[in-house]
Amino acid sequence: MSNPSIVLKEKGKIVLENRPVPDLTDERSVKIAVKKTGICGSDVHYYLHGNCGTFVVKAPMVLGHESSGVIAEVGRLVTNVKVGDKVAIEPGVPSRYSEEYKNGRYNLCPDMAFAATPPYDGTLARYYIMPEDFVYKLPDHVSLEEGALVEPLSVAVHAAKRAGIKYNSNVAVFGAGPVGLLTAGAARALGAANVLVVDIFDTKLELAKNIGATHTYNSLKKGNFDEEIIKLIGDRPDIVLEASGADIAMNNGLNLLKTGGVFVQIGMGKDDVKLPVAQMTQREIDYRGSSRYSQGDYNDAVTMIANGKIDVKQLITHRFKFKDAKTAYDNIIQNGKDVVKTIIDGPEDELAKL
Ligand SMILES: [Zn+2]
């Protein structure tokens, strides 16, 4: 196989397939040999349901978008990186002519080409092509596995910046999945005084403490939710970051939030959710959405890891070989509770001989 790729043929069907090696046709682009890829909830959603939000899989699509790799070839005008460099891949390229790109909020560009979002192929292949300014060189002491985790960490950094975290911020994060955990870590790294994580699994709350949470709370516990949390962090949080997407967490978060506070929605749940709008209006709650990442977020995430501000490696609970990628997805569906982050290796050499 010249370019082994993990392809979602249709809903419920993942295959290992050979695809043509992509050509480097642009002088400012690079060809990356993909080495590590994290599995994201969106990939699993495409596998199970054939869609994710409004994006529908209509043709076979290569999966994966949380990747790192090594530069294998560079275009004639590339100056950012050279062959052999370890890089993290930022997997969405906006239109360079869009209003959003010019305004510095390129994650909102309607013409974004994003890996493993139909109709664009993902990164679970031997080779992937990117413009040179959408790959980020990793320092020598940062591993390729950490490089793959730059993607979800950038989601967290973006959300934490949307919240406007300051040195004395009192922060509550709802949901201790990978993004919630990383959001807690990013909030702490950006200087928040208190970061409390709420979830229903004690094992995930334990992990939250290791990654930067100053306090945790299991919401299945009996007692008055608001009072218990105020007891822990001294006051109502002035920032709530919602990373679970569950209606009840959104409502609990909004009720808990301090008057005049900021609420950032990161998790994606149902399209239509009932929220206490009158209360939000009267208490001047800033309700903000947060989507993927934008200007500066990838650089900040790489720097946070490089400077030891957050230990992202702790999130990795499962590792699979490239040829076992389908098993990696099935394992998440069957044993989701025990999985935090799964990493799939780049194609092993033996596949090249097939
Ligand atoms: Zn992702």
From TrEMBL:
GO terms for biological process: sorbitol catabolic process. InterPro entries: ADH-like_C, ADH-like_N, ADH_Zn_CS, ER, GroES-like_sf, NAD(P)-bd_dom_sf, SDH-like. Its cofactor is Zn(2+). Residues 12-340 form the Enoyl reductase (ER) domain. The keyword Coiled coil does not apply. SUPFAM superfamilies: GroES-like, NAD(P)-binding Rossmann-fold domains. One of its GO terms (molecular function) is zinc ion binding. Keywords: Metal-binding, NAD, Oxidoreductase, Zinc. It comes from the Eukaryota. CDD domains: sorbitol_DH. Gene3D superfamilies: Medium-chain alcohol dehydrogenases, catalytic domain, NAD(P)-binding Rossmann-like Domain. SMART domains: PKS_ER (SM00829). Pfam families: ADH_N (PF08240), ADH_zinc_N (PF00107). The keyword Zinc applies. Belongs to the zinc-containing alcohol dehydrogenase family. This is Enoyl reductase (ER) domain-containing protein.
